[in-house]
UniProtKB/TrEMBL annotation:
Keywords: Cell projection, Membrane, Transmembrane, Transmembrane helix. GO terms for biological process: non-motile cilium assembly. It comes from the Eukaryota. The chain crosses the membrane at residues 12-37, 49-70, 82-101. This is TMM80 protein. It is found in: Cell projection, Cilium; Membrane. GO terms for cellular component: ciliary transition zone; membrane. It comes from Xiphorhynchus elegans (elegant woodcreeper). It is a multi-pass membrane protein. The gene is Tmem80.
């Protein structure tokens, strides 16, 4: 009789969320970029405000890669540090998402929907990250 005391602590729902969020973010980025281009053509988009709006979108895209990588790595290897770092990067992504939701030059209805879905996904993912970290620590 062989006893196996090893238990799997990594979270399947969290891993699924990382996958879904990765796909959704690609969609989010492309649609948001297209809407910024649309806004520059349809509205009188001040040149001083175009650069910050684009910079925020591209900074979000840059942050998304390590956020998802560290989260996946931390979850699959059951390590708190990468998962905690991913959680920290998520806070930065949330701030940038709120900027695009509330403070960009023109906020269309589609912006509100896209950013609300992304914020809900970040919130759900963060909750699962905290639960996974708690499971790994205990």
């Amino acid at each position: 009789r062989i006893l196996n005391d090893t238990s799997q602590l990594s979270s399947l729902p969290l891993q699924i969320l990382f996958y879904v969020n990765g796909i959704y973010y690609i969609f989010y980025f492309l649609v948001t970029l297209a809407m910024i281009v649309y806004k520059t053509q349809v509205f009188s988009y001040p040149d001083d405000f175009l650069a910050p709006d684009l910079a925020v979108l591209f900074l979000m895209a840059i942050l998304e890669v390590p956020r998802l990588y560290l989260g996946c790595k931390g979850n699959l290897t059951e390590e708190e540090a990468p998962l905690g770092l991913s959680l920290g990067v998520t806070v930065g992504s949330v701030v940038l998402c709120v900027y695009l939701l509330a403070w960009q030059t023109y906020v269309l209805w589609a912006d509100v929907v896209l950013n609300a879905v992304l914020l809900c996904a970040y919130g759900l993912e963060s909750g699962f990250k905290v639960m996974a970290i708690a499971a790994f620590v205990s």
